[in-house]
Specification:
By secondary structure, the chain is α+β, with helices and mostly antiparallel strands. It has a domain at 74-191: L,D-transpeptidase catalytic domain-like. It is 27% helix and 24% strand. It is built from 5 helices and 8 strands, in the order H-H-E-E-E-E-E-H-E-H-E-H-E. It has helices at 2-21, 35-42, 119-130, 155-158, 172-179, and strands at 49-54, 59-64, 67-73, 95-105, 109-114, 145-147, 168-169, 187-191. The protein has an 8-stranded mixed β-sheet, covered by helices on one side. Helix 4 links the parallel strand 6 and strand 7. The termini are far apart.
Length: 192
């Protein structure tokens, strides 16, 4: 009986270990392939790159013109459903933006700053005030970007833990990988 129970335990443990080794990001295009290798093999012009962030898919896709190059898992603000309307709502803005700057960051490895708020963001903010959706005194906010996680917190991405105040967060290795391909003016679109 003891031998039988031991065999069952070994089978169960083996099964669990195999489940744990399955790539949880297998649905993300080219996630296991280094970006440098992809860029070389696809002969991509860095200045034709753009970013699409899909909030419902928890996915950042790097495009070269209309060709998907690579996809990355991401998380968002603490209240990810809906568009950012004001400072402090913990939502990630939706719309068309561009990169306004980028720099190393002491807490999140790298920070890629997007040009929120745009004119469209201001229109939505003012309309939300007019409709009474946000207080008259509400500010629109700013300092929205794409960045990594505090050291040792990649699990926040693995478990889709929305933790930012409205930014888009990737694993540090991922933000470091895309960082050298970022340029000022690079198009960024954020959708639901």
């Amino acid at each position: 009986m003891l031998k039988f129970n031991l065999q069952i335990c070994v089978i169960m443990l083996t099964t669990l270990l195999q489940c744990g080794s399955i790539d949880k990001y297998e649905d993300y295009l080219n996630y296991s392939i280094e970006l440098d290798r992809l860029m070389d093999s696809l002969k991509v012009d860095k200045k034709k790159l753009r970013i699409l962030i899909d909030k419902s898919e928890y996915k950042l896709t790097l495009y070269s013109e209309d060709v998907r190059v690579k996809e990355y898992p991401v998380v968002f603000g603490g209240d990810p459903v809906g568009d950012k309307l004001m400072e402090g709502d913990e939502r990630t803005p939706e719309g068309v933006f561009s990169i306004r700057g980028f720099y190393p960051h002491k807490s999140w490895s790298k920070f890629i700053w997007i040009d929120y708020p745009t004119q469209d963001s201001w229109k939505k903010h003012k309309q939300a005030k007019k409709e009474g959706l946000i207080p008259e005194t509400a500010k629109i906010g700013g300092e929205i970007g794409i960045h990594g996680v505090p050291a040792g917190y990649d699990h926040a991405i693995d478990y889709k833990m929305n933790w930012t105040l409205g930014c888009v967060s990737l694993k540090n290795k991922d933000v470091n990988e895309i960082y050298k391909y970022i340029y000022e003016g690079m198009p960024v679109k954020i959708v639901t």
